[in-house]
Amino acid sequence: MPPARPRTTPRNPYTRLFAIPGATAFTLGNLIARLPMGMFSVSAVIMISGARGSYALAGAVTATGLAATAVVAPWTARLVDRHGQARVAVPATAIAALGSLSLLLCVRYGAPDWTLFASYAATATTPNTGGMSRARWAYLLKGDAPAVHTANSFEQAADELCFMLGPVLAAFLCGALFPQAGTLIGVVLLLTGVLVFAAQRATEPPPQGRTHSSEGARSPLRARGMPALLVGFLATGAVFGSLEVVTIAYADERGHKAAAGVILALQAAGSCAAGLVYGAVKPRGPLVRRHLLCGAAMAALMTLPLLAVTLTGSLTALSGALLVAGMATAPTMVTGMTLVQHRTPEGRLNEGMTLAVTGLLGGIACGAAGGGWAVERLAPAAGYWVPVAAACLALLLSSAQACATSTPRRRTAPPPASSEA
Fold first, then answer.
1. How far is residue 12 from each of residues 15, 27, 28, 146, 253, measured CA to CA in Å?
2. What CATH number does domain 22-151+166-206 carry, 1.20.1250, 3.90.930, 1.10.3210, 1.10.10?
3. Cβ count within 10 A of residue 71
4. Which has the closest alpha carbon to 134: 33, 30, 233?
5. Where are the domains of the chain?
6. 122 neighbors 99 (Cβ within 8 angstroms)
7. Structural contact between residues 79 and 210, judged by C-beta atoms closer than 8 angstroms
8. Which residues cross the membrane (predicted)?
9. Residue 180 pLDDT > 60, yes or no?
């Protein structure tokens, strides 16, 4: 049984969340564990490129890790659902930590290039800490849709905050201390956070074991509306990946490459703030319609950076445009993750949310590649068409899955009753 909720209902919905016994403790551990997610790839690029003198090698190593994560993460999440968060997350994190430490040592002592790929691929066992946290909220707040909405909004804001601070922290540590510092401290934070998170057993959803019912045994990929929803996450990830690459290239063209980090941080800050505000507002209307409206807002606001660079060419105007454009991404992600929770078969929640995150990461990789191609073949300013196109694709997919789920399934009529005695 989940811990008892407080009888009084505070005005602030976030205060209500953290009044639940154990919620603050598992959230703190999860935030510590989540921060390194934005540190590892940047740290690896700085460490490998500095030691081997090749950004191509560094990029290939991190891409290999991403591909391995896409394969391993859903399998790890399935084990979490089946055997429990603490029982699986702690050893999975230990394996990932050993992979990061192996990468550090291989770079430090000049091991062959193939060892870098093998080491970084081992980090794919890192559990989806954000998904596990959302699963805890879904368990603690079962049947309370407004509170689940607030919890998902908080988790999305936390994602934005960690991915905003992680790269900055990694770059600072690698520059101020030594090239391996970002990876080393990231490992310490990851292990510490997961251990603190896993120790909060009172708020952990019970393990489902091997589910033999037709509903629980069904893969989330086969749930109605899920395939289009997951492809929508892929398109949304392409928005993020292309924005990052194109903004860096545009700032570099203007002679202010160092400012790119600050500009991108503003986009994440806008998304973080919007996520918290969105979570404090009571949701209205059907969830599918809210997701569609949020997707439309994201597609519309993604035109602002394109207009800023086309009409003004000013980095200041671009910064403001990205700040505003970022305000639509968190609500889109919040409603999308809530839809994933609703459509995932019972007992497979971690797996369903991990599939969504995997789609998002794959989209980031595709968006980065598409943005890089546009920058090289066209111009940095023209590259802002890529996030616009990706946002429009996400909107079309949202429309398609909304239509698919709103159309009732045709049922086979029962045979007529026999008149024979």
1. 5, 18, 19, 12, 45
2. 1.20.1250
3. 11
4. 30
5. 22-151+166-206, 218-405
6. yes
7. no
8. 54-76, 88-111, 169-198, 228-251, 257-280, 292-311, 317-340, 352-375, 381-404
9. yes
Tokens 């806008």 sit on residue:
270
Q: Which of 204, 232, 208 is nearest to 345 (CA)?
A: 208
Residues written for the chain = 421
Asked if CATH classification 1.20.1250.20 holds for the domain at 218-405, the reply, yes or no, is yes
End-to-end Cα separation, the chain, in angstroms: 53
Instruction: Provide long-range contacts, Cβ within 8 A and 24+ apart, for 186-191.
Output: 186/36, 186/39, 186/40, 186/43, 186/100, 187/36, 187/97, 187/100, 187/101, 189/32, 189/33, 189/35, 189/36, 189/39, 190/33, 190/36, 190/93, 190/96, 190/97, 190/126, 191/93, 191/94, 191/97
Other beta carbons within 10 angstroms of residue 83's beta carbon come to 14
* Structural contact between residues 366 and 237, judged by C-beta atoms closer than 8 angstroms: yes
- What are all long-range contacts of 399-408, with beta carbons under 8 Å and residues at least 24 apart? 399/292, 400/228, 401/225, 401/228, 401/229, 401/232, 401/288, 402/288, 402/289, 402/291, 402/292, 404/224, 404/225, 404/228, 405/224, 405/225, 405/288, 406/288
Question: CA-CA distance, 388 to 391, in Å (whole number)?
Answer: 5
Model confidence pLDDT, tens digit, residues 241-289: 788 778 878 887 888 766 777 787 788 888 888 888 887 777 777 888 8
Which value, in Å, is the radius of gyration of the alpha carbons in the chain?
A: 22
Least Cα distance to 22 among 37, 9, 7, 5 occurs for 5
CA–CA separation, 227 and 397 (whole Å): 10
Task: Enter the tokens of residue 84.
Answer: 């429990």
With a CB cutoff of 8 Å and minimum separation 6, the contacts of 22 are 3, 200, 202, 203
Q: Where are the beta strands (DSSP E) in 46-158?
A: none
* Per-residue pLDDT at 391: 92
Q: Is the dihedral of CA 244, 245, 246, 248 positive or negative?
A: positive
